[in-house]
Amino acid sequence: MATAKDIAAMLQISVSTVGRALSDDPRISAETKQRVSRAAAELGYVANRAAQMMRGVSSNLVGLLLPDIRNGFYSTAAHALSQCLAAGGYQLMLCETGDDRVIESQHLRELSSAHAAGVIIVPSAKPLPESVRLLSAMPHCQLLRRYAALGNQCFVIDDAKAIHAATRHLMALGHERIGYIGGSPDLSTGAARLEGFREALRGTRAAAWAREEVGPPSSWEVGRGAVRRLLDLPAPPTAIVLGSVQITYGVLDALCTYDSAVRQRLSVVGFGDEPGFRWWGPGLTTLAMPVSELATACGLWFLHQLKTRATGLAPYTSVSHAELIVRGSTRAITAS
């Protein structure tokens, strides 16, 4: 394997000049950097990251911590961030936490030991104190969720407003028995979505009947079980609002086991506009989330922070908004 000494010998310059040129040191001329770069490519030189890290040099790795890559929200975000960071010369390292704060802390420890350039995190409900400490020592920002102790750099969606709009849409169609199935209120997203549902009903006749089912946001089983419990009530809901992509999948899967009469009586507003939602039954009315755009904005902002080598990231919050897409799964209430 070629070394910096080989490049230096080929170009008849010092090893220190080669090292500075490869690290884009401003003291080295553009011409010398180009010569070194061409020689490195010709010789097949690969930088010794381990040696660089021992000298305290940050790597070009950016960690992305998220709960579950099977969730369309997170896979979309990961793809957008990977493209954005690659264009800026950084490599995204994906770490799945399963919303387990111990695993979350383990990933952060490894990223810290690898001198990662920074971390973008979808935090668990209550990160461990060690996680808070590790993140405080490196550039980081929160995506989709936020946890106060991790700082004020975050890119999120106005979850409360989204669910509020979905609920009001059903009320405008005459529904007064409305159920909500969503993620755990221990998470910032779950709490905001639940509050959006409650706020939409507050002071209305529909508030007296409202039913809420909450659980882990990445579980199809939560959706399946919750919608069955709601439909088994003596006076079942005429409409339901869903507060998670995976829960939406679970609810739609469960509804396929009911006869068409039940499905026609029940109006449904899903969460996220996943491939296939527009083809479910009469087309699923749903909340489309600008996840790709949000993740790209996050990546560009984060790249700027890394490039400017800011010692401490200034508080920055970006809030995006969902779009209610009305299809055939919601309809005006009819007399029974």
Question: What is the secondary structure topology, with strand pairs?
Answer:
Layout: H1 4-11, H2 15-22, H3 30-43, H4 49-54, E1 61-66, H5 72-87, E2 91-96, H6 101-113, E3 118-121, H7 129-136, E4 140-143, E5 153-157, H8 159-172, E6 178-183, H9 188-201, E7 211-215, H10 220-231, E8 239-243, H11 245-255, H12 260-265, E9 267-271, E10 285-288, H13 291-308, E11 316-320, E12 323-325
Parallel strand pairs: 1-2, 1-3, 3-4, 4-5, 5-11, 6-7, 6-8, 8-9, 9-10
Antiparallel strand pairs: 10-12
Keywords:
Rossmann fold, 3 domains, 44% helix, single chain, 336 residues, six-stranded parallel β-sheet, 17% strand, alpha/beta
Notes on the protein architecture:
The chain is of the alpha/beta class. It folds into 3 domains: 4-47, no CATH class; 61-157 and 292-321, Rossmann fold, CATH 3.40.50; 159-289, Rossmann fold (3-Layer(aba) Sandwich), CATH 3.40.50. The chain has 13 helices and 12 strands. The protein has helices at 4-11, 15-22, 30-43, 49-54, 72-87, 101-113, 129-136, 159-172, 188-201, 220-231, 245-255, 260-265, 291-308; strands spanning 61-66, 91-96, 118-121, 140-143, 153-157, 178-183, 211-215, 239-243, 267-271, 285-288, 316-320, 323-325. α5 links the parallel β1 and β2 (91-96). α5 runs parallel beside α13 (291-308), α6 (101-113) packs parallel to α7 and α8 packs parallel to α9 (188-201). It is elongated, with a radius of gyration of 25 Å.
